Automatic annotation (TrEMBL):
<keyword id="KW-0227">DNA damage</keyword>
<protein>
    <recommendedName>
        <fullName>DNA mismatch repair protein MutL</fullName>
    </recommendedName>
</protein>
<comment type="function">
    <text>This protein is involved in the repair of mismatches in DNA. It is required for dam-dependent methyl-directed DNA mismatch repair. May act as a 'molecular matchmaker', a protein that promotes the formation of a stable complex between two or more DNA-binding proteins in an ATP-dependent manner without itself being part of a final effector complex.</text>
</comment>
<dbReference type="GO" id="GO:0032300">
    <property type="term" value="C:mismatch repair complex"/>
</dbReference>
<dbReference type="GO" id="GO:0005524">
    <property type="term" value="F:ATP binding"/>
</dbReference>
<dbReference type="GO" id="GO:0006298">
    <property type="term" value="P:mismatch repair"/>
</dbReference>
<dbReference type="GO" id="GO:0140664">
    <property type="term" value="F:ATP-dependent DNA damage sensor activity"/>
</dbReference>
<comment type="similarity">
    <text>Belongs to the DNA mismatch repair MutL/HexB family.</text>
</comment>
<keyword id="KW-0234">DNA repair</keyword>
<dbReference type="GO" id="GO:0016887">
    <property type="term" value="F:ATP hydrolysis activity"/>
</dbReference>
<feature type="domain" description="DNA mismatch repair protein S5">
    <location>
        <begin position="201"/>
        <end position="319"/>
    </location>
</feature>
<dbReference type="GO" id="GO:0030983">
    <property type="term" value="F:mismatched DNA binding"/>
</dbReference>
Length: 323
């Protein structure tokens, strides 16, 4: 029975990046406005996430590490409610099954906080301690008890690179949250949380890219788009820089991807992909979501319209400038 749990857990959290993603989503769900992420050895030996969110009440701590049976999300409306990044109710239990977890948490209204230790899914201790409000989760020695899963991990440098890519996207998708990303005791990424996307793009991609960006904006009652698109001169050999966010989430949708790429086509060499960082706000009633155990698929009901809006916005902006 334990083995089955461990294998299942390995599928939910297949590498440090997945652990970091789940823990940050929990911090965001808890209303954090500042989140610090630290990793050592690519996150394999050490991951620490500190947030200033709601904290967890003493009686809820062990429950948080139990798999809850039902999904919180049934409709697209649920998905885009503020407190709905977590939807499977199995992240903490899965992570704790395959690592050594230390949780330190305090609710603002509580006089003291708590430290909880759970290793390989086994509770070790729950004690009262003094600590600031919010939650810190430390995940040590990922897959220490499942050597077969550990073998699938790449080098520390490669794993750190995956976490770094994730952090860039998370920072871009939540410009209102202040993030700090620390690798082997050195600050790698930092954001102010003051909603300044241009500053974030500058920080992540540097001056050469940020001076080649055009601001774009579209407003209608059901759909708004804001953000930046790169001039064709900074096109790339892959889609890694073709980013867009729908209602605060980094989600792929083939209609939007197609609209972006078609709009760039007349301006771009073959086999090149644009740089974009676009923020969509779409009325959730126009969205449909399929939730699978591992991934989410977003469908836009009026895809035609979103395609045309995106295509025209980009094409007009690229045509206007002398490039
Ligand atoms: P889910 O996010 O799908 O509910 P998780 O296993 O990720 O499932 O988390 C379980 C529960 O633990 C959350 O629903 C939340 O109540 C609590 N929790 C986890 N992380 C935090 C955090 N950083 N701050 C406050 N509460 C948290
Ligand atoms: Mg969660």
């Amino acid at each position: 029975e334990n083995t089955i749990n461990h294998i299942a857990a390995g599928e939910v959290v297949e590498r440090p990046k997945a652990v970091v993603k789940e823990l940050i989503e929990n911090a965001i769900d808890a209303g954090a406005s500042a989140i610090t992420v630290e990793i050592k050895e690519g996150g394999i030996s050490f991951i620490r996430i500190t947030d200033n969110g709601s904290g967890i009440a003493k009686e809820d701590i062990p429950l948080a590490f139990m798999r809850h049976a039902t999904s919180k999300i049934k409709t697209a409306e649920d998905l885009f409610l503020v407190n709905s990044l977590g939807f499977r109710g199995e992240a903490l239990s899965s992570i704790a099954a395959v690592s050594q977890v230390e949780l330190i948490t305090k609710q603002a209204a509580s006089l003291n906080g708590y430290r909880y230790i759970i290793e390989g899914g086994e509770e070790k201790s729950l004690e009262e301690i003094g600590c600031p409000s919010g939650t810190t989760i430390i995940v040590r020695n990922l897959f220490y008890n499942t050597p077969a899963r550990r073998k699938f991990l790449k080098s520390a440098t490669t794993e750190a690179g995956y976490v770094n890519d994730l952090m860039e996207r998370l920072i871009l998708s939540h410009p209102g949250i202040s993030f700090r990303f620390i690798v082997n005791n050195q600050v790698r990424l930092q954001s102010s949380g003051n909603n300044n996307v241009k500053d974030i793009l500058y920080h992540i991609y540097g001056r050469d890219i940020s001076k080649e960006l055009l601001p774009v904006e579209f407003n209608s009652p059901d759909i708004t788009i804001k953000g930046y698109i790169g001039k064709p001169t900074i096109s790339r050999g892959n889609r890694n820089f073709e980013n867009y966010f729908i209602n605060g989430r980094y989600i792929k949708n083939h209609i939007i991807t197609k609209a972006i790429e078609e709009a760039y086509k007349p301006f771009m060499m073959q086999h090149k992909y644009p740089f974009t960082s676009l923020y969509y706000e779409i009325n959730p009633s126009l969205l449909d979501v399929n939730v699978h155990p591992q991934k989410m698929e977003l469908k836009i009901n009026n895809g035609e319209q979103v395609y045309q809006i995106t295509y025209n916005l980009i094409k007009d902006s690229l045509s206007k400038k002398e490039l």
